[in-house]
Amino acid sequence: MIALDPESRTPLYEQLYAALADEIRSGERAPGTALPARRTMAARQGVSVNTVDTAYQMLAAEGLAEARPRSGFYVQKTYGMLHSRPPARPVPAPDAPAGREPAVRYDLSTGSIDTALFPARSWGRIQRELLYQSPDLLQRGEMQGDEPLRVQIARYLSAYRGVECTPEQIVVGAGIEYLLGCLAHLFTGGVAAVENPGYTRTRAVLQNSGIPCTLVDIDASGLPAEALEQSGANLCYLTPSHHFPTGITMPAPRRAELLAWACALPGRYILEDDYDSEFRFDIRPLPSLQGMAGPDGPVVYLTTFSKSLAPGIRIACMVLPHSLLARYRQDFAQYANTVSRFEQQTLCNFMAGGYFTRHLARMRLTYKRRMEAFAAALRHALPGVTLGSVHSGLHFLLTLPGAGGEHAMVEAAAREGVRLRGLSEYYLARRERCPPDTVVAGYSALKEDDIPAVASALARAWAPCRP
After folding, report:
1. Sign (positive/negative) of CA torsion 449, 450, 456, 462?
2. Sign of the CA dihedral 53, 54, 57, 62?
């Protein structure tokens, strides 16, 4: 007899199946032996024949038993590959952390945004209309992204970033990391030069995709062409419009030198990451490297809507030169696009209706006011502080001599509920080159009403370390 519980929430056929499966896996029922006839088992267990038949069919479906016509069910040999399942137990609650981390009241990291600035009303209205009026968006779309969106992106990049391209050269994807992974496939066998300091995730993505990386130290104008030549790389990842994290804007002569490096030998390419060039407050941005090189130059242009809209929407794009486009289409022809078609068409209509440019204009004014207020509050609360690259992007470098060192500054700020990162965390090598007493302060997620409190919190955090 097999103990069955009619009061259990588990159906009787499942209880019977589980008990027999455990006996087979444990070897209690030897391979080749017959299971009791269905009517015999039903009478023995006091259940219906249908209950027994369902349990036997489940054993057969899992390969534990074999149904033989006009003969019954026989135990199958498991070859030691199947093991008895332990009895079901409730999932335990997670252990409480040994040491409670200080609560974060003010987030000065560079990856967050102020969600209150998201154009929820217009975005939501467009998306609702599409949901009811465009059921065709439920079907699979184009591999590179839907053409109407690529047309809008091409127009925007041409007007505001000087990018020369056609919609056919644009590939839409779910984030820069995904697109970098695709590009790595096209450059198999090469070596990539990465800025030091720089965006740590880029090196991880490239190396995880099989591209070895070499680190090249930047100077006051960005990545030097001479050092790049000496690195032996044939691929170079840059953030020329607003270097991350130092905020350096690469001047035109340096850009020309890097383009000359790329053009000197076939197979050399520059990956230009233009991640937040929309936010420049006092100076007009230089044209993109891609625009300087031309539509078939040795530059792959990448940009994202994470800063201008929201990182959770996961929409980014790259512009491929014609020399790479055919290879990309050949190798990725069977791939589906990684961005929802509803999100794609929402962004398309948002751009076509003029909402995007108006949204960016409001964002620039808001962030400019926030930057100026935050900088003024820090200078007042922290005598001797130096703020670098405040007029572009959504973060700046904060240097406070005598504050006890970068690590002490980050830890002390955390105790006051302020989250930020030290500059040395972005040095992938040669951290001794990092300026001392310097942290990276982002303000994109900072509420304007919280600015005085943040400045006061940092003053309390760092005051004990200063003379």
Report:
1. negative
2. negative
Q: How many CB atoms lie within 10 A of CB 218?
A: 20
Which pLDDT score, from 0 to 100, does residue 80 have? 56
Closest CA to 371 of 347, 353, 388, 349: 388
Q: What percent of the chain clears pLDDT 90, i.e. is strictly above it?
A: 72
Residues 49, 6: Cα–Cα separation, whole Å: 16
Reading the block at residue 71, the tokens are 């003969």
By CB atoms closer than 10 A (0-12, 13-18, 19+), residue 255 is buried
Above 60 in pLDDT, residue 467? no
Strand 269-273 versus strand 299-304 pairing type:
parallel
Q: Are 440 and 422 in contact (CB under 8 A)?
A: yes
DSSP-derived 3-state class of residue 127? helix
| pLDDT value for 79 | 66
Contacts of 52 (CB under 8 A, 6+ apart): 13, 16, 38, 41, 42, 45
Residue 283 has pLDDT above 80, yes or no: no
> What does 159-177 look like in DSSP terms, one character per residue?
HHH-----GGGEEEESSHH
Helix, strand, coil % over all residues of the chain, rounded to 5: 45, 15, 40
- Model pTM score: 0.81
Helical segments of 234-354, H only: 252-264, 289-293, 322-331, 341-352
d(C-alpha 9, C-alpha 5), whole Å: 9
SS (H, E, C) 355-378: HHHHHHHHHHHHHHHHHHHHHHHH
What are the phi and psi torsion angles at 424 (to 5°)? -65, -20
H helix intervals, 187-251: 200-208, 225-231
Q: What does the alpha-carbon distance between residue 58 and residue 18 come to, in Å, rounded to a whole number? A: 9
Angle at 338 between CA 336 and CA 342, to 5 degrees: 100
Q: Tell me the mean pLDDT in the region 173-179.
A: 94
Which amino acid, one-letter code, is at 289? L
Close Cβ partners of 423 (under 8 Å, ≥ 6 residues apart): 197, 245, 246, 397, 406, 434, 435, 438, 439, 440
